[in-house]
UniProtKB/TrEMBL annotation:
UniProt name for this protein: Ribulose-phosphate 3-epimerase
Primary enzyme class: isomerase
Species whose genome carries this gene: Jannaschia rubra
GO biological process assignments: pentose catabolic process; pentose-phosphate shunt
SUPFAM superfamilies hit by this protein: Ribulose-phoshate binding barrel
Lineage: Bacteria, Pseudomonadati, Pseudomonadota, Alphaproteobacteria, Rhodobacterales
Names of required cofactors: Co(2+); Fe(2+); Mn(2+); a divalent metal cation
Amino acid sequence: DRSLKIAPSILAADFAAFGAECEAVEAQGADWVHVDVMDGHFVPNITFGPAMCAALRPHIRGTMDVHLMIAPVDPYIDAFARAGADVITAHVEAGPHVHRTLQAIRASGARPGVALNPGTPAEAVATLLDDVDMVCVMTVNPGFGGQSFLPAQTDKIRRLRQMIGDRPVHIQADGGIDPDTAASVVAAGADVLVAGSAVFRGGSVADADVYGRNIRAI
Ligand code: DX5
Ligand code: ZN
């Protein structure tokens, strides 16, 4: 199913109203909700953990897409799966045993994704394409929302789509995706687009129609 999916990242939402923000973006057309977990070690920022995911679960009807920017990953997989994560994405750079991590995510009942930082070549996941449901290509350096899109990552997306072939594997573009950059990553083969600032900017739970307009513009 390569129909385009928009996954708003709640990193750009009101941190004091996450439940209502998830309901608002879903009501306004979001396909997935992207939850950016950061540990202040793998990336220079700290956000939230499994308890937040569990609290958000009742407010997300669709796919809860959990992006783990943490190291190590393995000790926390079951907690995120129990919290209700549908997709759990780990970074290939997070440790020496990414294949085992992906097996553990699959065993937890969640769908495994693997993420690549901008400095990591597509070939780093060549041996993992039968073990994941999704490859997340970071189109910014991880840690913060609102950064500028890195155009060179489009070539990586194209290369990955070629490597994936006819496997049922999503390619997610994550970072700096907005109406000006979405077309290039979709043309290259991305079918899940994460967008934080491009979705939440200018809107609020009280003015959620803005979210719908922003989503449709991507
Ligand atoms: C960055 C996160 C991204 C980010 C996207 O580390 O993984 O998901 O929140 O935010 P925007 O769309 O504002 O770049
Ligand atoms: Zn993310």
